[in-house]
Structure formats: C-alpha cells, structure tokens
Amino acid sequence: LDRQAGRDLLVRQLKASGALIDRKQHRHAVRHCYRCDTVVEPRLSDQWFVKMAPLAKPALEAVRDGRIRILPERHEAVYVQWMENIRDWNISRQIWWGHRIPVWKCDACGTEKAYREDPTECGTCAGSVLTQDPDVLDTWFSSWLWPFSTLGWPAQTPDLKAFYPTDVLVTAPEILFFWVARMIMAGFYCLGEAPFHSVYLHGTVRDMEHRKMSKSLGNGIDPLVVVEKFGADALRYTLMQGMGLGVDVMLDPADLEKSFAPGRNFATKLWNIGRFLLMQVGTDPVTPFAELDVTKFRSVDRWIIDCLSGAVDGADAALGPARPASGFWPPAERQSGLRLDEYAEVARRFVWNELADWYVEACKGRLLQPGADREIARSILVHAFDQALRLLHPVMPFVTESLWRKLPGHVEGSFLATAQWPARPRRGAADADAPPFTVLQEAIQAVRQLRSDYAIPPAQIVTAYLTGPNALTAFVREERALFSRMARCEIADGAAPAGAAAHVLLPRALELVLPLAGVVDLDKESAKLWNELGGLEKQL
Questions:
Q1: Does the bond joining 72 to the residue before it have cis omega, within 30 degrees of 0?
Q2: What pLDDT score was predicted for residue 430?
Q3: What is the C-alpha separation between 447 and 397, in angstroms, rounded?
Q4: 145 and 190 in contact (C-beta within 8 Å)?
Q5: Alpha-carbon distance 79 to 175, whole Å?
Q6: Residue 361 to residues 275, 377, 379: CA-CA distances in angstroms?
Q7: Does residue 80 contact residue 60 with C-beta atoms inside 8 Å?
Q8: How does DSSP classify residue 97?
C-alpha cells in the first residue's frame, strides 16, 4: 500500500472498533529523499569527531596577521566568525565509497584505537583479532589534504618542495567553510604553513532569472557549443569582462548570440586590427623600438607611448602583486589586485580605443612616405601592438598567439605564452612648449560631436575655424591633413564669418567655430530648438 491508502485503511479500522476519537491534519517535518521520496528515518549511531578549536587557531591568526588574504573583503568577516565559533567536526559517513576510518576494535578487550599502519595485534592486550570501523571519512576530511597529498606527502618529494605552498586558491564562496578553511587548517597542522597566500572567491554564472545554472534546472550553457559558434577567445573574454570581484555573471542560455556578442565582437575587431596593421607595416624588417631616436618622435608617437604606459600600469594595478614581499600582506595590499574585469577592460581600451582608433589612423599618411619618419611609425606600431597582444594573451590566448607570430621580426619557435610581460616603455622628451597630441584629439572629437548633433552626412566635408593661443592653433593647422581625414572637416585660416554657427569651447582656451549656413537647414534647426525650449518651459 502507498502511504495514503495505508492511512485510509487505519482510519476505517479505528472507526470499526470504536477507538477513533478525532481526525486532524498535522504538518510534520519528516524528511523525504529528494530522488525517490522515501521517508528518511533518523538512526542513532556512534560517530567519530575531530576536535577543531586547536586546528582553527593558527588558521584564524594567519588571516588576521596578513599571511593569508581573502577577496572580496566581505568574506573575511564570514571566515573569522565561523572560525571563532567553530564546532567539533563529525567525520563519520555511512556510505559505500571513501577513505576507511583508520580505527580498529579489539574483539578480545574491546579497545578502539586509531593506527597509522594496519595493525596485526591489539596494542593493549596483544589480541590478534581486530575489526576495522565500517564508516568512511567525510569527503571534505579527505579533500582538506589536497594541497599537499597530491604532491607526494608525507614523503618530502621534489614536487612538494617546489609547489607547496602555492600562491592563489580560486574557488566559489559557498565552500569557504567546507574546503577553504579546512585546507588552511590542514596545511598548518601537517606542514606548519599555509597552503596559499590568497583566496579569490569568484561569482557564480546565473541565468537571467538569477538562478544558478545547473543540469537539474536545465538552464545551463554548454561551453563547447559556445566555442564552436563563437570561439574559445569569445567565451573567455565575455566571462572575464563580466567578472567583477565577487560579482555573479549573468548569461542568457536561450540567447547565446546576445550573451557572447561582446567577446565575439572584440575577437573579430582584434583580428581585423591585426590584419590591417600588418598590411600597413609590411613585411620588411622593422627597427627595434629600443634603437629608435626618441628625439625624433612626433607628438602622436609620445601620446601612444604614454597610453601604452598607462595600459601597463593599469593592468598591473588591476592584477595586483603576485605575492606578498615579506610573507605578510601589508594593509595597503590586503584588498588590492585580482580585479580581472578591470584588467580585461584596460587591455581592450588600449588596443581598440587608442591604438586602432587613433594611432593607426594617424600613421596612415606617414606609412606612405619613405624615410626616417616612416620607420619610426612602423617600429612604434609593431611595438605597441606586440605589447598589446602580451597584455591580452591571458584573456584571449588563441587569436593573440596567431597574430603575434605574424609580426615582423618574430623568432621562429617562440611562443607568446612565454614572452616577457610588458614594462613601461621609454618616452621621447618633448619641448616644454610643444602642444600635446590631445589638442588635436579634442578638436577632432568636437567636430565629430557637432556632426552627430546636427545630423551632417558622413561624406559631407565641412569647414571650421579655430581661435585661441597661437601655438595651439598653429599645431592643429600643421596637422590639417590628419584633421581633415579623421573629422571630415577643413580648418580655415582667419576669423569665422558672421552668421549662424556652432561654438565649442575646448580645453587650453581654444574655441572651435563651425558655420552652419549651407551645412544644415537653419529653419528646421531653429524650429527644433524652439520645440525643445517649449518643452522645458512646460516642465518648469
């Protein structure tokens, strides 16, 4: 009989005998198996426990004094609270598989004792009949030995000497108690030192309803499908750029196109940047960057070198120091580094927004004219792209490796994975009064914004006037060819004519004036502005 039929039968029997007094519905807390719905019946049995307070003390002190840091910072308080209030650990499990508990009971005298080696006789009465406890160890009790048991411990193997302690443990916050804290305790107990100096607790991949992805819910994403459709680099970059410190990553299993478009688009952009740059530079040998005469650098050359220095500094700051210099994390470094999303964004911004959008465009004319200036541009282009690929390689290993091997001067058999990490490049000194490239950049961006505001067609060439300090206006006019190509705008000499015009105030006391007569429909623009003004007056 099932449970309901059994209850109905019992009620009928009680009624028939006259013993039924009343019938009520009661809510109970009897556990049921989530798979087969069978009642789980509790049974008292002898269990083995480990006393935890002595083990927790050194593990707690290591976090407090800075030998171990936990990122994000909020999890450190959780760790401390649990370790301060730790309870003895039940390590007995009544399951089929696992490490058998090393406790034997003497059939003669009843003594129970733990042995390091399988015993042949009782240590108390010398009896020869001993029975091992049938329980196995808790899985976590076996797993807390992982940092050193996999390296040959207790033997002092070369692997153990080389790889213990390691540097960083990367895991999810839900096993901070079950595994992380216990590995630290086991490390101090068995080897006298922590197994790692940093614990990085990452977020969880969730669907658009904030549910954790799982097979049982059917809301998971097969990474192999993503790799096949968009590439492994797109998968890695998408996850990395969304991986704020301890922040969950939201992906839509029903729309892989939308979920992985950022990684796919950037991988495509990077490949196209590389192909275009290599085509512009050519296959002739390139002068090494270290051999360039920095006094011959132009303002745009110094600007891109500054951008590269900023990208290297930003990536280093986002990743943080590799390990504590003195064995203890100083307060300033306890919560710094391992900002993987910031690191990915710094590298992306340099190669896309600075190298591709500005420097490559600025060098197009230079690359067409033979001479020393062309060789400087070629060398800086190759060097900047080489360094950018090194920064991006941990995030996008496949496309960066492929492009790096195509760079002029690549040594056959060398791998980007083993190349030196970028360092701050040297910058050519500029005259104190020499205008920086950002002056030209700001003027170009101002014209682009005006073109967008007034819906000026991209193919239409416009004319603008620039007023301000003579050195700055002269610098922009010297670069009028680049200005015209990037802004689709001619810089005219003299003062702007009277009439309707758009004005933009730029930094360094510069003003850009764009006459609108003949460029836009003034009556239409006037009507649009009056409508906006009327709307604002209504709101007021």
A1: yes
A2: 59
A3: 38
A4: yes
A5: 11
A6: 14, 11, 15
A7: yes
A8: S
Exposure on the CB side of residue 29, measured as CA atoms within 13 A: 1
> Angle between the 299-319 and 437-453 helix axes, to the nearest 10 degrees?
90
**pTM flag (> 0.90):** no
450/453 Cα distance (integer angstroms): 5
List the structure tokens of 130.
């001993």
Query: How confident is the model at residue 17, as a pLDDT?
Result: 94
Backbone conformation region of residue 230, classed left if phi is above 0, alpha if psi is from -120 to 50, else beta: alpha
Question: Is the confidence at residue 147, as pLDDT, over 90?
Answer: yes
Dihedrals φ, ψ of 500, to 5°? Answer: -65, 135
Distance CA 248, CA 408 (A): 41
Alpha carbon of 235 to those of 198, 207, 212, 252, 264: distances in Å? 26, 16, 18, 13, 8
At 300, the pLDDT band (50, 70, 90 cuts) reads very high
Q: Token pair of 109, please? A: 């005298």
Average pLDDT for 447-474 = 89
Q: What is the pLDDT of residues 216-246, one digit of tens each?
A: 888 999 999 999 999 999 999 999 998 888 8
**Tokens of residue 529, six digits:** 């502005």
Q: What does the pLDDT look like over 72-92, one tens digit per residue?
A: 999 999 999 999 999 999 999
- Dihedral of CA atoms 14, 16, 22, 25 in degrees, nearest 10, equals 60
pLDDT digits (tens, 9 = 90+) for 149-171: 999 999 999 999 999 999 999 99
Nearest to 233 by CA among 256, 267, 191: 267
Binning pLDDT at 50, 70 and 90, where does residue 25 land?
A: confident
| 458-463 contacts, C-beta under 8 A, 24 or more apart | 458/488, 459/488, 460/488, 460/519, 461/488, 461/489, 461/490, 462/488, 462/489, 462/490, 462/514, 462/519, 463/489, 463/490, 463/491, 463/492, 463/514, 463/515
ω into residue 330 within 30 of 0, thus cis? no
Q: Do the Cβ atoms of 198 and 231 come closer than 8 Å?
A: no
Let me know: does 147 contact 195? Beta carbons within 8 Å.
yes
